[in-house]
Amino acid sequence: MKKFFIISLGFLASLQWANAQTISSKKWADLFSYNNVLAMKEDNGRIIAATENGIFYYTISTGEITKLSKANGLHEVKISAFDYNPQTKTALVGYQNGSLDVITPEGITYIVDIPIATGYNASKKINHVSITGEKAVVSVGYGVSIFDLKKKEFGDSAFFVSGGIYQASNEATIVNNKVFSVTNTGLKSHVLNTTFPVFSTWTTELPGTFTDIDSESVLAFSSSTTTYLYNNGVSTPLSQTFGNVSDVVINGSDLIITDNSRIYTYNISGTFSGSITVGESCNTAIKAGSKIYCGTILSGIKNEDNIAFKPDGPYFNYSYKIRLFNDNQLLVSSGGREGGFNTNLSNPKNPGFYYFNGLEWIYSTYFVGSTTTFNVLDAIADPVNPNEFYFTNYNNAAGHGIYKMKYNAGSKNIDFVKRYDLNAANEFLRRPVGFTYDDQNNLFATLAFSGDTGTTGAFASYDKATDQFLVKDFGITSSAVQQPLFNQDLFWIPLPRSNNFLVYDYKKTPTLSDDTQILLSNSNNLPGNSGGTLSVAIDKSGDAWIGTDSGLRILPSAAAEIKSNPQLESIVIEQNGLPEELFRDSQILQIEVDGGNQKWVSIDGGGVYYLSANGEQTIKHFTKENSPLPNNSITDIEVDKKTGKVYFVTYDGIVTYQSDVADVNSNFGNVLVYPNPVVYAQFKGNVTIKGLAEKTNIRITDAAGNIVHSAIARTGYYEWDLNNQKGKRVASGIYFVLMTNEDGSDKATAKIAVVN
Q: Would you say 447 and 459 are in contact if contact means Cβ atoms under 8 Å apart?
């Protein structure tokens, strides 16, 4: 059964994706990387580029760049294939999970039912798509499928299976009703007729291992070293031998071959006409006008003049933790952990961390081409000198430790200053995890694998006088720790490899000499089946919310109660008339408190929940299926309490959500009502009133002064369903909103126009 999600997009008639914000809620935006260009097409002076997590187009004459992603219309991330037909204004986007997006002038259609060969259990990744007229051939790990773009449904499929072994179609194209596919055993072909699905009837045009193919006025295909022109059953190799061909493109009267960083151009008869290089590796290249444009791996689109064009964003999509500072600056760490939050998550890209300076994303040249293994679990700015950063390099190889860096605004680079090895007996020990500052701007870090045998965690404080980190082992059997949280003169530290939670009292001195610690365990009502604690947040009431790998626990009045051997509490909700523990047996990756004391809670594999202040009501539940989230395991959440913007961090990239809750206090902020006017024919939801006090008494009256609705809001915003006190929708007219804070010392008013 197909799942269709069709949104009216008249602007797509000319592929004006700049207006694609109308596809889904404007509350969402992406912070994706658009550096790695996988495929490109040109349409009337605009280059359309597909990248890992989205599509952007660059208008050559004006320099305008706009983008389309899961935040504003696409249905997935991890793009693996793309093609576009300028004549029909139709694009086809293939994803690593095997789904497709069809973009037409009428809208975007999501296709999830690609044919699967019986007995095939390997990757469903779309290797390649190629559009010819109203048909497209889709290459997958088990062969090819024909897709009807007009009907938006699949036709025949040919499963390349012989002797029970499936053979992938690396790429394929349609020429004169005939499909040509390059595979690891040769160039295969078959006419689109009744025997097309039978693999034994396919012809091997030329044996060999071939990876790339394209057709327009002619057909060209390639191995990693040799490119062929095909004509009437004859495959003629070009005289040039290449190093590592990544793409062949027939572009009008040109054959364009991408060979690592050099682009070669031939005419369609095979005569060499020139080459260029942009000084870095490219995936693909096309010709627009008289110039070559390269789709690079690290710099977006580059032209012959070595000028790059792309939407601004982080260097890569890999992301783990995020820090917001100085109102709108960001530091994003790109590492990760697996194996019980202990083993470093190896990343061949070696990304380090990314920095947004408030205007643009900056990536340090220190990480480019470095032979050091970087697994950055946290990066933080010095609150006194915000151009100085520290980051943790968590690995068991040379180069682990804490690093100090400095941002140079003149060169727009982040320079290396110093590495602190933490006095480890060997490189395996004392792996740094996360940072925090106390209220005196002293820097602290948690360390895993400490002690003589690496079986305990440790705490480190930065000594400004000696420019070193002082280290103290916890002395408990828990070799992994999480990022610490400083609150009310205590450090709150999850321990993910033991069913414990650590509260560390540093006695307001960074020397660590007189410190004490409190260890919570099963006896304090941590879940009995838990293998460790993963996250913690302290809310505006002073309650500690502790996330474990088997549920959620609350410690009311945490700082006051922690020293009294407290009992942690669970949240019990009613499900189908029966009491049930909230998030029982769920792995709580992250907890964040917003300005209205409501909670964002990330569940491993379950998306993110937005809960009321006491946790008993679910306000929203976002997953990758119903929102732009890249996946269902959000590794970090950050709330900008001044604006209400929420950052969701995943290994596949970052998206933001503009909530209605900014920082809330006892008085009113900037009270805003929207939508206003409320025209029933255009909007049938609730009216939102935001900018309210912590506790707001609301009365809504008609023009005659009659009260039609009253309520108390406690979260900084309120939603009115436009019903009166009898539950009936109010009549058309002007309504007055009269508001006071809890003690009546502050007042606010607003008007709402209703048109039924």
A: yes
CB atoms within 10 A of CB 243: 10
- Interatomic CA distance for residues 714 and 644, integer angstroms: 16
Q: Does residue 11 have a pLDDT over 50?
A: no
- Tell me how long the chain is: 756
What residues are paired with 472 via a beta bridge?
459
Q: What is the pLDDT of residues 422-469, one digit of tens each?
A: 877 776 789 999 999 999 999 999 999 888 778 889 999 999 999 999
CB 293 within 8 A of CB 287: yes
The DSSP 8-state label assigned to residue 514 in this structure reads: T
CA distance 652 to 58: 24
**Phi, psi for residue 382 in degrees, rounded to 5:** -70, 120
User: Which amino acid belongs to residue 748?
Assistant: A
Structural Rg of the chain based on CA atoms? 29
Q: First and final CA of the chain: distance in angstroms?
A: 38
CB-side neighbour CA atoms (13 Å) of 468 = 8
**Per-residue pLDDT, 59:** 97
Per-residue pLDDT tens over the stretch 176-208: 999 999 999 999 999 999 999 999 999 999 999
**C-alpha distances in angstroms, 280 versus 259, 369, 374, 400, 655?**
11, 12, 22, 29, 29
Contact 375, 393 (CB under 8 A): yes
200-235 burial, b if ≥16 CB within 10 A, otherwise e? Answer: eebeebbebebbbbbbbebbbbbbeebbbbbeeeeb
- Tell me how far CA of residue 236 lies from CA of 233, 451, 489, 547, in angstroms: 10, 66, 76, 64
For residues 140 and 119, give the distance between their C-alpha atoms in angstroms, rounded to a whole number: 15
Angle of CA points 279, 280, 286, to nearest 5°: 95
